[in-house]
Write a structure and sequence with these properties.
Layout (H helix, E strand, L loop, with lengths): L1 H29 L3 H17 L1 E6 L8 E5 L5 H7 L5 E5 L8 H7 L3 E3 L7 H13 L4 E3 L20 H8 L5 E10 L15 H11 L2 E7 L10 H18 L12
Helix pairs in contact: 1-2, 2-3, 5-6
């Protein structure tokens, strides 16, 4: 079964490079609606071949565009979320050159940020606001890094700056909290890629495990009117923590190495 997964993964990526990347690039340039279908179908295929089963509770709020804020457990959060909705993501610049992940990011129209470069913040915030003004639903992971999944790290308020920018122009995207957890059906599991791990052995281990359940729960929207980004960061983190605690099964996860 493991070798079949690996073969299916290789065929899926090959097909993406040959057919989907050019078609998606053209669809994005022309504004064709098929760009959303390509993104969600491709991410569903990737989830299936690496053995991740996505189970969603609730749904996005009806008022678009949505500013989606989630905890971050693994790179697989991106494909799991994008298998449900055609989201736009924010990621650090180096992701664009990563194996597999770079392809996924570019297919989804990810906005890349130069980490640690303060001069890039204004450009990124403008790009994120423009993506929402164009009708896109944006996902940010304001922990700034992936966590073990047992709790939610403090949210960085800078990730909420696009909301302040748009509020100053009389615009109000819907702030939607989301919690993500992984389990094997009985207990929480860690599917992260971190530390000194290399990607391909990590991916092989993930496919070997198989049948990982990704639980995603969409919470009620958070009122943003009159709130500064620091207040929104604190309130949204508390809401995501509540959503995470409601997901079952639970179970202790060991801490990750620094």
């Amino acid at each position: 079964m493991l070798y079949l997964r690996a073969l299916a993964f290789a065929f899926t990526l090959t097909g993406a490079f040959v057919f989907l990347v050019p078609l998606q690039a053209l669809a994005r340039r022309r504004g064709w609606p098929i760009k959303h279908t390509i993104q969600t179908r491709f991410c569903r295929a990737i989830c299936a071949v690496i053995g991740i089963r996505v189970e969603a509770q609730g749904a996005l709020p009806s008022n678009a565009p949505r500013f989606v804020v989630a905890n971050h457990v693994s790179w697989t959060d991106i494909i799991a979320l994008a298998s449900l909705y055609p989201f736009v993501f924010l990621a650090k610049r180096e992701v664009a050159s990563w194996p597999v992940l770079g392809l996924l990011a570019r297919l989804q129209g990810t906005v890349f940020v130069e980490r640690g470069l303060r001069q890039d913040v204004a450009r990124v915030n403008d790009a994120l606001a423009d993506a929402m003004r164009a009708g896109g639903d944006l996902v940010v992971f304001p922990e700034g890094t992936s966590s073990g999944g047992a709790d939610v790290l403090p949210f960085r308020s800078t990730h909420f700056a696009p909301l302040e920018m748009m509020a100053a122009c009389g615009e109000a995207p819907t702030l939607a909290p989301v919690a993500i957890a992984y389990s094997d059906g009985a207990r929480r599991i860690d599917v992260g890629w971190y530390g000194d791990m290399t990607f391909l052995p990590h991916l092989w281990s993930l496919m070997k495990r198989g049948d990982a359940q990704c639980q995603i729960i969409f919470g009620d929207p958070i009122q943003t009117t009159g709130k500064k980004r620091k207040m929104l960061a604190v309130e949204t983190r508390a809401r995501v923590q509540e959503l995470l605690a409601s997901l079952q099964p639970s179970g202790h996860l060991p801490g990750r190495p620094e």
